[in-house]
Amino acid sequence: MPASLQEELVAAGLKHAWVHQAPRFGRAGEDGLVIFESGKGCLLTDITGREVFDGMSGAWVVNVGHGRTEIADAIGDQARRLAYASAFNFLTEPAIRLAEKLALIAPEPLERVFLCSGGAEAVEAALAMARQYYFNIGQRGRYKIISRRGSYHGSAFGGKSVSGLRHNLLQQRFAPLLEGCIQVAGPNTYRTEDDLDPRAYAIRCAREIERAILHEGPDSVAAVIGEPISASAGVQVPDREYWQIVRDVCTRHGILLILDEVLVGMGRTGKMFAFEHYGVVPDIVTLSKGIASGYAPIGAVVVSKTVAESFAGDNVFSHGYTYGSHPVASAAGLRNIEILEREELVGASATTGAYMHERLNGLAQRYRSIGDVRGLGMIAAIELVADRGSKTPFPVEAKMSQRLADCLLDEGIFLRVWDVIHVAPPLVATREDIDRMVDGIGRAIGRFERDIGFN
Ligand SMILES: Cc1ncc(COP(=O)(O)O)c(C=O)c1O
User: Is 118 a pocket residue for ligand 1 (Cβ < 6 Å)?
Assistant: First the structure.
């Protein structure tokens, strides 16, 4: 792109566009706004021609990698044939086929699929479904939702109300949030309480859910919602028993278990669904990012037979979206899942992911600021600390997250740095790609340590 056009585009972006959840509407550092224009595999290219390794798959989204022309063709073919039909009256072939496909890959009794256009919409629909389910079956006092501190369930008001990530900030800025949302401790494996080991702490956290249910009164609780592996809480992979206990508690008290797989579903953790690591099946599962790998906006709520059947007759689900069951997004999803299966990318996520964790753990031997490396499959977190022994985080003045993000970008790597460094490359990443990424992460952490005089 000619330099004059680049400048004009940056100026227009800074003036009119809005980068979500970013300071000053966008990341307008010394280089101006970063604007990408193309991608291939794990690489993104910006308008200046600079290549950046997409170590985040965008935002845990682009599982099959960038530049898949066959998905673009599926989108184009469908848009040419039929771009839209009323979601409130009709279905289309791709929407039916995608619903069928998701129901087939999900374990029984999950069988009916509500298609929407993103994660927040999926969570919102799941919460509404849980509340209306109890209306449908005549248990009208059940409306409370239990979630975990540190969790993220999207930016709609239901999602905000059950999100535990910086919940006090959400309360301050958007209050009042939904009534009846109760949060309990999440099973953090690095920062446990009372010196418990991660397994014992996970069991305590699972039991805490039952205590909250008993405290509130089981007849007032509709659902427990959680991410099987919570990225927002810093990629927490709880002990297997955690979800088994939570599943059992929900079943015993007649409460629905909603597992939010918006981020970790569709192969990210080395299994198609993260809950498969735990030998449990939820009543409702939300999906989004990996369904179409970002080639089109799409989300889904996959629902058990029992829950779905309660919506028969007059109990129409009073919830719907204009872009629900969208044919073009569904065509993208179908082709994306075909690629996931044909190229065995879920298996690749497990094996390349294991290699990635080995390499990331190797960094912890070298850099003193690395307190913990954790994750599963192609999702990881690196937690940096000012002191390993006491696990003390860096003070705000160290500007860890901005500095590290800049160091990483200088190395040509995009990763999200919040309280931890998030790592989630496309599932198509090769060992060489992982080496390139991990070597760059090492150099960036080394520079960060030097910059703050850590050595
Ligand atoms: C677990 C989880 N749920 C819901 C959402 C919201 O999805 P979206 O941003 O597509 O609305 C996210 C987004 O990151 C998520 O990670």
Answer: yes
